Every structure is written in C-alpha cells, then in structure tokens.
Amino acid sequence: MDDVRLLDDVALELSSVVANNAMNRERRLTGSNGYGRDLGIDVAELIRQRLADGAETFRWLDLCCGSGKALLECREVVDDERLRITGVDLVDAFVSAPPRGVEFVTASVTTWSPADRFDLITCVHGLHYLGDKLRTLAAIASWLTDSGLFVANLDLSSIQSADARPLDRRLRTALRSNGFDYDGRRRRISRRGGGSVVLPFDYAGADDQAGPNYTGQPAVNSYYRSR
User: Fold this and answer.
1) Which of 37, 69, 146, 213 could crosslink 219 through cysteines, CB 3.0-4.6 Å?
2) What is the per-residue pLDDT for 95?
3) Residue 128: which domain range?
4) H or E segment at 51?
5) What is the pLDDT of residues 96-139, one digit of tens each?
6) What CATH number is associated with residue 67?
C-alpha cells in the first residue's frame, strides 16, 4: 500500500477516470450494448408487468445513467403516466431535456439522497468508478421499496483490504448476510426488498490508478479496514 495514493471521494470525483468515463454515454435499453444484456433483466417488461398487476406507481432509479438514452427509450416504450424514472450521473451529459415522467439529476451517487423509495434501482457498470462502494450499497438498500429490486455490475476484486489483500470471501459472506446476492461469473450484484445494511468494513480511500478491470476500461479500487 505504500506506493498507492488513496483518494477520498471528493478528490476521486475530480479524477479523469471518474468524471470523464464514457461507459454509459451511448448505452441503450436493449440490444447488444443494452441494459438487458448487462443486468440480465428486461427492464421495460418488468415495469409493464408490475403496472399490469395494478401498481399505483412504478419508480425506477438508474444510477450513473450516462446520457440517459436508455431511460428515454423506456419512457417511449412504456407510455404510462404511472411510471416515474430518475437518472443520476456525476456529469451533466444528458441527451436532452427529459419528457414528463423522467427526471435527470447531476449529483454524486455517494452523497445524493432521494426523497422517494424505488421499485427498481439499477447501475450499469457505474459502481466501478465509485470510491466508497459499500456505503453506496447500504444506501441503495434503504432506497428500495419492500418489494423493490436492485441489480448492478460489480467486480468484488476491486474491493480490497487496507493492506491490499482480497476481501472476497469475507465480503461475500457479509453481503449475503445483509440480503445481497452475488453472481461471481457475471460479476453482478442484486437484492430484493429494502432494509438496513451493516457491513463490517470502514472505508480507507480509493485508487484511481488501478488500471483496467474486466470490462477493459480503467476503473477504481476501493480499500477498507475490517472491524
């Protein structure tokens, strides 16, 4: 760790790796570069089904949404006034002014807090660029409705101990005991239902020079001290 310069989240968000990443700028809802392929769910169909089952509203929160193209596409294919979509991204690079039912927010995911709870929360490859990933996961759990679903891409190898050792096994156990499921082959984390999350790790800082992760894009490693 002596040769690793750890950044707090304020400094990290000024990094070119974080602020200028193009991972989601052109991503669509469907297709070879779509949300369905990365998350393993058909977002539009999930929403349609819940609305058909009589939901009064359906709220979808997409974190690190990039340009927001996928959100606008969803609003077009699910033309229902009960649908509310919120997209949050650190960089204001949204494709256009949002239509009714869609809200774009320029904010840091690690400090932003919503007024509502959500039926679906997604984050397509965005967690790779966050510093305190575990604090964000705990916050997300508190933003879900009782029947809400969270799905995101996450590489557990990017979460390490303060002495740069893997946390993989202990981390998996802690996540599972707090209601998260992790698919190691697809590097995908999910959770059903909101609730309180307490993970036995304290954030030490992040490294924006960790290099490419499994996506081939430069990513951020996050370091924690075990309690």
Assistant:
1) 213
2) 85
3) 9-226
4) helix 43-52
5) 788 999 999 999 999 999 999 999 999 999 999 999 999 999 99
6) 3.40.50.150
